[in-house]
Structures are given as structure tokens and as C-alpha cells.
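Intended use. Records like the one below are meant for learning the mapping from a protein sequence to its folded structure. Do not use them to infer anything beyond what is encoded.
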Amino acid sequence: MSLADKIDALLPQTQCTRCGYDGCRPYSEAIAGNQAPINQCPPGGAATIAALAQLLHRPTLPLNPDNGVEGPALVAVIDEERCIGCIKCLPPCPVDAIVGSRKQTHTVIAGMCTGCELCVAPCPVDCITMEPRGGEPEPTPEINRARYNAHNVRQARRTQEQAALLAARKQTARAPAREKTA
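Structure written out for the chain above:
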């Protein structure tokens, strides 16, 4: 197991990007390469910083306030009365915890939500709030990582399918033009 793998295993896998990186894996690689300090993860908080310090034989640091503050585990909640079904919250969700379709009310599957907050900013009607998780069990980092990886595979497949469709359309559009010149 590489050092980046060991570091990644200690991170909460919320994929929130508050550390300044595109997810937990890029942040773990930056830490392993001595390109990032160990105190940039608000969801992991003091416990994660302490675990990273122990693993890396570095001093424990306080959480960098520029990245956020440590707090209770959060979950996204959509006010379904205000939701307009714009689907702008769906793409940023790194674990596909939001269910909905265009012009339909959306909802969050609380047990899958990592509390990353990435769905909040794109919402044009401000119907998404972050609330303390309460009695709802928090997904484990392993489950978060698996859902994030599945999301990325699905996104890559969708991108490839769209590229193939566009290429086929271009090819079809060129075919009649060639027939006219022949």
C-alpha cells in the first residue's frame, strides 16, 4: 500500500473539496508528496489531523480555519415545496445521493449523503440546506469511497457515450454532403 493510499484511508471521503483539492484522493496525494499540510480537512477535523500526524510522524496542527470549521456531521435537505426540478444539484453530488429528474421534485437519500455541501451553491432557488445528521447513521469512509468511485465511473461512461453520439451525428451530417458532391 502506497503512502497516498494510507493517507486516503484516514480521510473521511466526503469529497467536499474544502481542502482545496478535487477530492480526498488528490489531497492524500498532495500530502504524500509534501505539497499540502495535514490540517486542511474540516469534515475529518482534529481526529483525522491527529491520525495523519501519527502516520506521517509530523506535529499535530490545528485545523486551518481558511478551509472551514469542524462541526457536527451534516446532511443535505431539500425543501420539496420550493424545489423547481432544475437538476443543477445532481452533477455536483459526488455520491449520487440526490434523486430527481428535470421538472420533478428532488430529494436527498440521507443515508448516502456525505454532507459535502457541493449541492447548495448551484441551487437557483436556495431550497437546499445543510442540517445536523441527527439520528441518521453517517456513511462510513469505505462506503463513501465506493459510491464516489461508482459516480466517477458512471460519469466517465456517460461522457464517452455522449462523445460517441456526437461523433455519429457529425458522421451522419457529413454523409449527405458527400453524396451531393458525387
